[in-house]
Amino acid sequence: MTDGPWLDDAEMEAWLALVGVLLRLGPALDSQVQGDSGMTHFDYQVLAMLSDVPERRLPMSELAVQVNASLSRLSHVVKKLEARGWLARTPSPVSRRVTECSLTAEGYDVLVAAAPGHVRAVRQLVFDGLAPEQVDQLAAIAGTIRANLDASGLTTLEG
């Protein structure tokens, strides 16, 4: 395997470290928020994204972009969270073809209760031990990788 666009030693080391993070971070965050709050990390992200916008309401298509999910995956999760009383779906006042999703008062309270434990886990798993310049580097690196993913046409938001 000496022909072709193989990774050099430094790239391979970085790649394997990134793969380790990708495979372990999601399940670790899921475990924390599930244990503390009875929701998945994706559920938490949906609630958190809605909590940060005016009126705590977004069109489903915009929310899907915010949480990096397909509309079908988001619809499935929203239906589940709606059944728990944490979200509500309503027709948009601007267009009948648009469905909006809003965070209920109960959903907001659940998020507020879940946030401290989640932030502690994120800090412990990601930021503890990083110097401020490494946080800046992490943001730049993740932004570049995300732009590469967006431009590739190879990624889907299913799953």
Task: Summarize the structure in short.
The protein is mostly helical.
Plain-language structure description:
The protein is mainly alpha-helical. It has 2 domains: 32-116, Arc Repressor Mutant, subunit A; 129-159. The chain contains 6 helices and 3 strands, in the order ααβααββαα. It has helices spanning 9-37, 41-51, 60-66, 71-83, 105-127, 132-152, and strands spanning 57-59, 87-91, 99-103. It has a 3-stranded antiparallel beta sheet. A hairpin with a 7-residue loop joins β2 (87-91) and β3 (99-103). α1 (9-37) packs antiparallel against α5 and α2 packs across α5. The protein is globular. The two termini are 33 Å apart. The model has no long low-confidence stretch (mean pLDDT 92).
Main attributes?
159 residues, 65% helix, 6 helices, Arc Repressor Mutant, subunit A, globular
